[in-house]
Recover the amino acids of this structure.
């Protein structure tokens, strides 16, 4: 039994990743890049990024400002179509742009505090460096999406498998690195070595970026569709010709607003207000990997049964109570963090698997770079607005709590209640109106599967009723026979 499962799993892998054709090889390259990205992102994002900024006495308000600067820079992706259409072969320029971005994002931000010692000066320098990094890279990053989109399997089942496998392998990699690095960082907490370790991890991350770029350069590049000369205003006009694509885009805009409402701010809260160690916070992130591996098969069946959109909506509805409960978490109630993290990690598997394909559900093939640029600028703009509002809410009392209901409450905690209300709205809209977002072919396939399921269920019920009737008839006959 176990051998057969292992053999089936290997066959499933070889179907998605192999070196026999350029598409499968491209997916293999994409997997390798995803693993490396998961590796170095541990050191430059999330709780370690929060720790890096906290080393320089950045307040929660300043942290929020620094965090939303990238979203302003990413709005320059509106010009990406005008820039990329000048290159028939884009591989080199895309990879050079990626190296530039990480050189600024990692090296420049890591070295700058060694030369600028004044707090306000560092703040301005962080803003300038991050803006230059993201604004330039925004002109080219949609090209990477278009390049690697060619390797996505066309069939829904294989595409779901491909997305799930990439997430599983990436999560395993990041989890192992998270636990090891968190253990080392906590072991030297309060000593000068902690700062040295955090800085060293950032330098290591840049080396891994260079390896990642080399791996990506091995992927084949296909000719890009010829398109008429595009005017800037068309970036904002063309997407509106595709109704269902715009429905999906509008939803993704709002979701980016919501997802970034307390993005980073909550990590700051856990680290500096709740005083949780790195190991505990990252252990909850690692938990996601184990849940992903053990439940992705169940979620794939749910996706096939309910569609990408409806699954996302249902998951949001179940998520709402966890946000409300997080509002009541205090230092004295720190025990709430683990069970709530478990529930959210379980639901995050469904959210991430379904969200990963929503952009591509109705993505028009013609001028896809332009549509992706529209998506990118909108998502970044709404993420910026969400984080700006979250920062404004969090700055009301900042790092000073106010007593409420017998417990100290920081302003950032109110963002959980606001998220709960918004997620309830998202859940109801997507669950009830999923067909407005879903391609007709997918609707037909889901309805057909639902019809088959209903027939099987009815046949099963009929068989059960017949069995019960036959059993009762046999018992009555048995009693009659016995009485005679």
């Amino acid at each position: 039994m176990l051998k057969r499962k292992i053999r089936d799993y290997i066959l499933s892998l070889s179907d998605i990743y192999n070196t026999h054709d350029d598409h499968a090889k491209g997916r293999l390259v994409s997997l390798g890049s995803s693993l490396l990205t998961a590796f170095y992102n541990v050191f430059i994002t999330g709780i370690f990024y929060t720790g890096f900024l906290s080393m320089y006495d950045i307040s929660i308000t300043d942290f929020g400002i620094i965090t939303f600067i990238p979203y302003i820079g990413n709005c320059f992706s509106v010009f990406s179509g005008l820039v990329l259409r000048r290159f028939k072969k884009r591989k080199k320029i895309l990879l050079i742009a990626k190296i530039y971005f990480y050189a600024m994002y990692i090296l420049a931000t890591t070295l700058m505090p060694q030369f600028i010692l004044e707090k306000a000066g560092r703040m301005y320098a962080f803003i300038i460096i991050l803006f230059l990094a993201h604004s330039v890279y925004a002109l080219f990053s949609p090209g990477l999406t278009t390049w690697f989109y060619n390797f996505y399997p066309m069939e829904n089942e294989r595409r779901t498998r491909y997305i799930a496998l990439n997430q599983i392998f990436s999560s395993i990699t990041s989890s192992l690195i998270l636990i090891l690095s968190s253990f080392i960082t906590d072991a030297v907490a309060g000593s000068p070595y902690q700062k040295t370790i955090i800085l060293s991890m950032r330098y290591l991350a840049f080396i891994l970026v260079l390896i990642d770029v080399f791996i990506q350069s091995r992927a084949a590049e296909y000719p890009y569709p010829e398109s008429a000369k595009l005017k800037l205003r068309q970036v904002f006009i063309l997407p509106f010709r595709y109704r269902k694509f715009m429905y999906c885009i509008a939803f993704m805009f709002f979701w980016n607003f919501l997802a970034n409402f307390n993005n980073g701010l909550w990590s700051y809260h856990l680290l500096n207000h709740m005083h949780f160690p790195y190991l505990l916070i990252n252990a909850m992130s690692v938990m996601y990997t184990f849940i992903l591996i053990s439940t992705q098969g169940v979620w794939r069946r749910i996706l096939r049964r309910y569609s990408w959109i409806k699954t996302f909506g249902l998951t949001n509805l179940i998520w709402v109570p966890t946000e409300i409960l997080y509002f009541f978490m205090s230092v004295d109630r720190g025990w709430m963090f683990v069970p709530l993290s478990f529930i959210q990690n379980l639901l995050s598997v469904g959210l991430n698997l379904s969200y990963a394909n929503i952009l591509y559900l109705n993505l028009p093939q013609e001028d896809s770079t332009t549509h992706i640029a529209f998506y990118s600028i909108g998502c970044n703009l709404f993420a910026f607005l969400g984080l700006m509002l979250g920062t404004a809410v969090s700055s009301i009392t900042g790092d000073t709590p106010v007593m409420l209901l017998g417990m100290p409450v920081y302003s950032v905690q109110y963002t959980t209640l606001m998220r709960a209300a918004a997620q309830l709205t998202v859940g109801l809209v997507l669950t009830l109106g999923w067909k407005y977002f879903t391609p007709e072919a997918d609707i037909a396939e889901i309805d057909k599967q639902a019809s088959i399921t209903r027939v099987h269920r009815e046949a099963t019920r009929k068989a059960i009723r017949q069995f019960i009737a036959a059993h009762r008839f046999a018992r009555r006959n048995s009693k009659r026979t016995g009485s005679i």
